[in-house]
Amino acid sequence: MKKEFLPYYISRFILSAVFSILVWGFTWTAALMTIVFFGLFLLYLHSGWFSVDLSTPLYPLRHDSHGREVQRKALIFAVTLSLLLYTFAVPLSNFTGIPLISGHIALSVGIITYFIAQFALFIKA
Questions:
Q1: Which residues have C-beta within 8 Å of that of residue 113, sequence separation ≥ 6?
Q2: Which of 41, 53, 91, 107 satisfies CB 3.0 to 4.6 Å to 12 for a cystine?
Q3: Can you spell out the DSSP letters for 3-47?
Q4: Is the pTM of this model over 0.70?
Q5: What's CA 99's distance to the chain center, in Å?
Q6: Which of 60, 62, 76 has its CA nearest to residue 121?
Q7: Per-residue pLDDT of the chain (125 residues; tens, 9 = 90+)
Q8: Which residues is 30 bridged to in the sheet?
Q9: CA–CA distance, 40 with 45 (Å, rounded to integer)
């Protein structure tokens, strides 16, 4: 860990902890997820996928043209998948009589897909 990134480390740890506590309460799962989320923030900072601007210590990561293109592709993929799930799950569920997926799950799948696609596209490059 580099000393010049200390404001970023502290702010992202607090953000990870607050989000985990809001979602999972004061449990061991929240503690585990805090570590996972903080690790992902560290990965983004030290991966080389973004340029780093230390003039803004709380928000040092900057997208270049490649980062914006990756973000755009991931967003298109996630929105498309979510819309397909939401559009075709209800008719298929009515046809089969088995509840398959709800709108909340389709949205959650889209969010998770966005981050996984973005991660995969950055690794691929």
A1: 74, 77, 78, 81, 82
A2: 41
A3: GGGHHHHHHHHHHHHHHHHHHH-SSHHHHHHHHHHHHHHHHHHHS
A4: no
A5: 27
A6: 76
A7: 778 788 888 998 999 999 889 888 899 999 999 999 899 888 878 877 777 777 777 777 777 788 888 889 999 999 999 888 888 877 877 777 777 666 677 777 888 888 889 889 888 76
A8: none
A9: 9
